[in-house]
Amino acid sequence: MDISAEDLDDLNYAKTLLENPGLAAKITHALGAPIEKGFDFLPKGWAEVVSTSTQKALLAAVTSATLTMSTTKEKNSANGFHKILVAGSGAAGGFLGLPALPVELPLSTTIMIRSIADIARSEGQRIADPQVKIACIEVFALGGPGTGDDAVETGYFAIRSALAKAVSDAAKHIAAKGFTEKSSPVLVKLIAQISSRFGMQVSEKIAAQAIPVIGAAGGALINTLFIDHFQAMARGHFIVLRLEEKYGTEAIQEIYTSLD
Q1: Which of 53, 121, 140, 215 is the most buried (most CB within 10 A)?
Q2: Residue 42 has what DSSP assignment?
């Protein structure tokens, strides 16, 4: 099929954002040390804290942040402003460590999803559309390749395919009832599926923050990398969705797969 040169460039850029590299690699590069060292400093029971905090953070974020955003299309998203806000919460998390996660993560996640919605709007999406709201939540599952991931299972379209049924059901629910029923089984199911992937990224974040030399300043840096990573995922995701609306999902997936 024919695709304009500009749109092909956009799709290539989107693939670059979505497939390379993962959050762990970005943090390791910034710190100059592998984040795996940080796991040795985490207290017993940290995985349960991450799991519980991640699900609560996602549920709190999706029921608040995007509801107050203007539906007017903006040419540019306010990425820098949102990074400053998340860096501030990261400073507290870096100083207090794991005990701060149940408070810090919902705050930073809420800011992040508002940033994601802002990016969606800048790509021409209508934030009031339930499908777009769900697409914003979906970004948290698009963490990029991790240190031990199988590319076949973690590729962008593979993840979207795995979430497709839950995404469709949740979008229909929101269209009918909004976010008023936070305990709705379809919404809870989607959050659980996304949380399992988002939790991997959160685990990498807190492991980096647990390294003794990090402290508050390092926590701010790590949170800045954290939101920057998901802003990149959001930009790539909504570029793809914009092009799918124009050319069709199957056509864009075929071209995306063929790109080096």
Answers
A1: 140
A2: S
